[in-house]
Specification:
Strand order of the largest sheet: 7-6-12-13-14-11-15
Strand content: 15-25%
Number of strands: 16
Oligomer: single chain
Protein name: NAD(P)/FAD-dependent oxidoreductase
Helix content: 25-40%
Organism: Streptomyces inhibens
CATH architecture of one domain: 3-Layer(bba) Sandwich
Structural class: alpha/beta
Shape: globular
Pfam family, one: NAD_binding_8
Largest sheet: 7 strands, mixed
CATH topology of one domain: FAD/NAD(P)-binding domain
Length: 480
C-alpha cells in the first residue's frame, strides 16, 4: 500500500464551506479524522456571509439573517461557539406583522405575552402554541434529524404532527382577527409554497414553537460570526480550509476515507458524473426547485417609519397583508407568476445589534418571494409594500442595493434560480429530500454524501444537514 493510500484512510474532504459544510467538517474532525474543506468562493460562509454593501460602516447579511433554528439547533447547542466569538442578540419584539387597518400582530418569545397582545385570538394562540413551545427542545431534536427512524418521543411528535400535517389554511381558521391570522400566515409563508397543501402548516408551526423557546436572534457582528465560529472550532480540531478552490471533478480531490458535498443535488450530480447510479442521478437532476427570492438592502436614515408601533421594535417584519393575500401571493409565485403584492420578509437586525448601523443610518434588508428564476425587477413592487405599511420609507432611503435571483446564484452557486431554501417544500420533500431513501445523505457513490440544505431538515443556519450527513459518513466508516 502506498503512503498516499494509507494517508487517505483517516482523511475526509468537504466541498463547500457554508454552515452545513462547516458543521459536517467539525463533526468529522472531532471524531479524529483529518478534514480539509474546499470552498469555491474567496471567503467562507455561503448563506451566512456579511459585509458592507453601500454606506461605510453599515453592515448587511448577504443571505440568512435571523436564526430561530440556529439558536435552537440540537448540534450547534452542543458546541461552545460563544468561546469562538458567536453571540446571539435578541430584539425587544421578535416579529411583527402589520395589516392595512394599522394594527399589527406581535410575536414575543413569551407565549403569554404574545397571546395577551392578540386580544380575541389570544386563547387560541395559547392553546395551540403553549404545549408546542414547552416541547420545543424535544421537537427540534426529533424533526431536525431524518424522519426515517424510530422517534424518541412519539407522543410529543404526534401532537406536533397533528397540527403540522394540516394545510396552513386549515390551522388559520383557529384565529379570528386579521392581525392574528396574518401573524400566523406570515410565518407559515416561510414554506415558500402553497399554504393550502397538506403539511402546509409544518414550517410555520415549527418555527413559531421554536421561536417561543429560543426567540428570533441575530448573530452579533453579522451572520458571518456563525461561520467564523465553526471554522475556528474546525481549525482547533486539526482541520483546514482552502478558499478560492472550485471543485469541478471528484478527481481534483485528494485521497480520503469519505467526501461530503455541501452542494445542490444538480451540482452533486454534475460532479459525480457516471460514478452515480442512474436512479440517484435521475432523482437529483429532477429535484424540483423552490420559488426564488429577490433581495433589497436599504440603508435607511432614521429607520423605517412604520405606522404600527410594534414594527418599530421588531427584529423581523412580515409584509403580506391579510392571510388571504399571503395565500394568494405564495400560490402565484409557486406557479411561476409574479404577484403584484409579493410577500416580504424584512430584517431590522440593528435593533438587536446596534453595531451594524453607522450613526442614524441603519441596515434594513428585505426578501420578496418571486417565481423561480424570475428575470424581472421586483424593486418597485417591494418598495410599494413598504409604503403600504410605512408611508415615507422611500424618502429615508439613502442607498439601495438590489439582488436578483440571478445575482443570488452568481454569488452562491447553490442558490439556483434564487432558490434560497434548497428545493421545493412539497408534502413529500418536507420529509424525504432530496430523494426517497433510507439514508437521504447517501449519493449512491461509496464514501460520498450530500450535506446541503437539500437534505433533511432543510434550510437554515443550523448546521443539522451537515451534522446528520457526517454521522451517516461515520457509520459507513464503522465509526458511528
Amino acid at each position: 500500500m502506498t503512503k498516499q493510500a494509507r494517508r487517505g484512510r483517516d482523511e475526509a474532504v468537504v466541498v463547500g464551506a457554508g454552515p452545513n459544510g462547516l458543521a459536517a467538517a467539525v463533526t468529522l474532525a472531532r471524531r479524529g479524522l483529518r478534514v480539509t474543506v474546499f470552498e469555491a468562493a474567496d471567503e467562507i460562509g455561503g448563506g451566512v456571509r456579511s459585509g458592507e454593501l453601500s454606506v461605510p460602516g453599515v453592515l448587511f447579511d448577504h443571505c440568512s439573517s435571523t436564526h430561530v433554528m440556529g439558536a435552537g439547533s440540537p448540534y450547534l447547542r452542543t458546541l461552545d461557539l460563544a468561546a469562538h466569538g458567536l453571540e446571539w442578540c435578541w430584539p425587544e419584539i421578535d416579529l411583527a406583522h402589520p395589516v392595512d387597518s394599522g394594527a399589527a400582530g406581535a410575536l414575543y418569545r413569551s407565549v403569554e405575552r404574545t397571546a395577551e397582545g392578540l386580544g380575541a385570538d389570544g386563547p387560541a394562540w395559547r392553546r395551540l402554541f403553549g404545549p408546542l413551545a414547552a416541547d420545543a427542545e424535544v421537537l427540534t431534536d426529533e424533526v431536525m434529524r431524518p424522519l426515517v427512524k424510530v422517534p424518541r418521543h412519539p407522543f410529543r411528535l404526534a401532537r406536533f404532527g397533528l397540527h403540522a400535517l394540516q394545510p396552513a389554511t386549515l390551522v388559520a381558521r383557529r384565529f379570528r382577527t386579521e392581525a392574528g391570522r396574518g401573524l400566523f400566515g406570515g410565518v407559515a409563508a416561510h414554506l415558500f409554497g402553497p399554504l393550502n397543501q397538506p403539511a402546509g402548516a409544518a414550517v410555520g408551526v415549527m418555527i413559531i414553537a421554536a421561536g417561543h423557546r429560543y426567540g428570533w436572534p441575530v448573530a452579533k457582528g453579522g451572520s458571518r460570526a456563525i461561520a467564523d465560529a465553526l471554522a475556528a472550532l474546525l481549525i482547533e480540531a486539526g482541520g483546514r480550509i482552502e478558499t478560492g478552490v472550485p471543485i469541478r471533478s471528484l478527481d481534483q480531490l485528494p485521497p480520503a476515507a469519505t467526501v461530503l458535498l455541501d452542494l445542490s443535488p444538480a451540482a452533486a450530480a454534475n460532479l459525480l458524473g457516471d460514478r452515480m447510479p442512474s436512479r440517484v442521478r435521475r432523482a437529483y437532476t429532477r429535484y424540483r426547485p423552490a420559488p426564488g427570492a429577490f433581495k433589497l438592502d436599504l440603508a435607511v436614515e432614521g429607520g423605517v417609519p412604520w405606522r404600527a408601533e410594534a414594527c418599530r421594535r421588531a427584529g423581523t417584519v412580515h409584509l403580506g397583508g391579510s392571510f388571504e393575500q399571503i395565500v394568494y401571493a405564495e400560490r402565484e409565485a409557486y406557479h411561476g407568476r409574479m404577484p403584484e403584492r409579493p410577500f416580504l420578509l424584512v430584517s431590522q437586525q440593528y435593533l438587536a445589534d446596534p453595531g451594524r448601523s453607522a450613526g442614524d443610518i441603519h441596515p434594513v434588508s428585505a426578501y420578496a418571494h418571486v417565481p423561480h428564476g424570475y428575470t424581472g425587477d421586483a424593486t418597485a413592487a417591494m418598495l410599494a409594500q413598504f409604503e403600504r405599511f410605512a408611508p415615507g420609507t422611500r424618502e429615508r432611503v439613502v442607498a439601495l442595493t438590489a439582488t436578483s435571483t440571478a445575482d443570488l446564484e452568481r454569488g452562491n452557486a447553490n442558490l439556483i434560480g434564487g432558490d434560497i431554501i434548497g428545493g421545493a417544500n412539497t408534502p413529500l420533500r418536507l420529509t424525504m429530500r432530496p430523494r426517497i431513501a433510507l439514508d437521504p445523505y447517501s449519493t449512491g457513490v461509496p464514501g460520498v454524501f450530500l450535506c446541503s440544505a437539500s437534505t433533511p431538515p432543510g434550510a437554515g443556519a443550523h448546521g443539522m444537514s451537515g451534522h446528520n450527513a457526517a454521522r451517516s459518513a461515520l457509520r459507513a466508516l464503522g465509526m458511528g
